[in-house]
């Protein structure tokens, strides 16, 4: 497994070696990402724009263009506009949803463009020259292992899903496979689209429907915020654990403070988009060819190591 620091350092080092020699052969890299509709994507937008600013300033031979889209349909339109207006040497894309973006990205790939996919994989992985993501199966599995241990191997759970994507499927698989054969029972599992307001409403429904719940897995920290508020307003005391994932600074702070309901967290840094952009540039200039899949670790964040993951000035 690669660490984020090693990957970023290697990619950046290779770019520095390329230097100004690329100026006469300008490469265009389009970066297509969802708009900042929740905390994690706000972090993605921030880090993508930072990468574009740094690369465009340092390397006149490379132009990085960042486009954000508030829906899958608008991301498809943005891709069509980008590919029609200029020749794209590379596309770095975090798909709004996997299924709807697969064929549009394939069309760009077929035109000879290098494709880097981040986080939400396409349904046809052969389109991807480079895929960079966190280990979503580990996010689900490591959370489940902690719940099994903390609850003594038995209890009633409710689960919130994100949106229909490969990464959501992987997180759920990791979680469900790990609790299989234990006394942990999932009472209900529904989508809340990685949205705090939707999660708040869904958790209210769960609380009304189930008189006893031992633990909640929100799958994502934006949803966890909604869950925690719903539990707080309900006054319920039966819920022992409410866990999320992604490493939001507000949740990591809870871990640092020894919060009883949210004592652990799993990282899934939005800065992975910046790493992916640097790695893509390195591929184009022939300094650090990387193909295939790069996965970032998902170690459990506990009170003992949480300060290493706490960045109070981060947008997420």
UniProtKB/TrEMBL annotation:
GO molecular function terms listed in the Swiss-Prot or TrEMBL record: carbohydrate binding
Subcellular location field: Cell envelope
Residue ranges annotated for the Periplasmic binding protein domain, each copy included: 29-287
Signal peptide from the UniProt entry: 1-23
Primary site of residence: other
Keyword Signal recorded: yes
UniProt keyword Signal, yes or no: yes
Top-level taxon of the source organism: Bacteria
Annotated GO CC locations: cell envelope
Family: Belongs to the bacterial solute-binding protein 2 family.
Protein known as: ABC transporter substrate-binding protein
């Amino acid at each position: 497994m690669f660490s984020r620091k090693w990957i970023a350092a290697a990619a950046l080092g290779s770019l520095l070696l390329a230097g100004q020699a690329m100026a006469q052969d300008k490469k265009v890299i389009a970066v297509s990402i969802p708009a900042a509709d929740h905390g994690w994507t706000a972090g993605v937008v921030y880090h993508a724009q930072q990468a574009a600013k740094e690369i465009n300033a340092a390397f006149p031979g490379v132009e990085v263009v960042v486009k954000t889209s508030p829906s899958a349909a608008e991301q498809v339109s943005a891709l069509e506009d980008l590919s029609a207006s200029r020749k794209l040497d590379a596309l770095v894309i975090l798909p709004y949803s996997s299924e709807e973006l697969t064929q549009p990205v394939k069309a760009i790939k077929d035109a000879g463009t290098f494709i880097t996919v981040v986080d939400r994989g396409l349904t046809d992985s052969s389109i991807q020259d480079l895929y960079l993501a966190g280990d979503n199966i580990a996010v689900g599995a490591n959370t489940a292992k902690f719940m099994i241990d903390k609850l003594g191997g038995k209890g009633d759970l409710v689960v919130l899903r994100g949106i229909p994507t490969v990464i959501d499927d992987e997180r759920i698989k990791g979680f469900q496979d790990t609790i299989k054969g234990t006394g942990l029972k999932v009472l209900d599992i529904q989508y809340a689209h990685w949205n705090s307001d939707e999660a708040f409403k869904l958790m209210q429904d769960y609380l009304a429907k189930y008189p006893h719940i031992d633990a909640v897995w929100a799958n994502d920290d934006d949803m966890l915020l909604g869950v925690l508020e719903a539990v707080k307003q309900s006054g319920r005391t039966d819920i022992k654990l409410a866990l999320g994932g992604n490493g939001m600074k507000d949740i990591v702070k809870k871990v640092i403070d020894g919060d009883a309901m949210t004592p652990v967290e799993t990282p899934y840094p939005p800065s992975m988009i910046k790493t992916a952009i640097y790695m893509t540039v390195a591929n184009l200039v022939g300094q650090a060819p990387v193909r295939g899949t790069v996965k970032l670790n998902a170690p459990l964040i506990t009170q003992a190591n949480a300060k290493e993951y706490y960045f109070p000035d981060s947008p997420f």
